[in-house]
Design goal:
Strand content: 5-15%
Helix content: 40-55%
Largest sheet: 3 strands, antiparallel
Structural class: alpha+beta
Number of strands: 3
Strand order of the largest sheet: 1-2-3
Order of helices and strands: HHHEEEH
Length: about 120
Amino acid sequence: MNIQPPENYLDSMQAAALSFLIRHQAEHLGNTDQLLMRAVIHLNERLQVPEHTAKRLVDRAYSELKPEPEHRYLDVDSSTGLVAVLVDPESGRRYRIPIAEVFAACIDDPDLPPNPSSTH
C-alpha cells in the first residue's frame, strides 16, 4: 500500500480519524455509533478540531474504512442546509433535493408511524 503524506490540515485530521477508527473498531463491533462518537471526541479533545469539523472528518474517514462503499451517496460538500445533493456514480447523475421536500415526503407524512428514536 502506498500511503501519501497528507497535503493539508483537513487531510491530516481525516487521516488521524481513520487511524483512530482502525485502532478501535474491534472494541465496538456491535455499536458503530459509539465508535464514531469516540473518534469525534478524540479529534475534538486531543487534537483541538472543532466538533462540527470533527464529525464531518470522522464520517469521511468511516467511508474509507467500510469494506464495500455505497454506490450512491450524499455529497456533503455540495449540500447546504436547504438542499441535499445526492450522487449516483453509476449513472453519473446528481440530484438536488430541497430539504423541505425530504421532510414532506419522509417526516411530515401523517400516514407514517411516529419514530420516537428520531426525536431529540
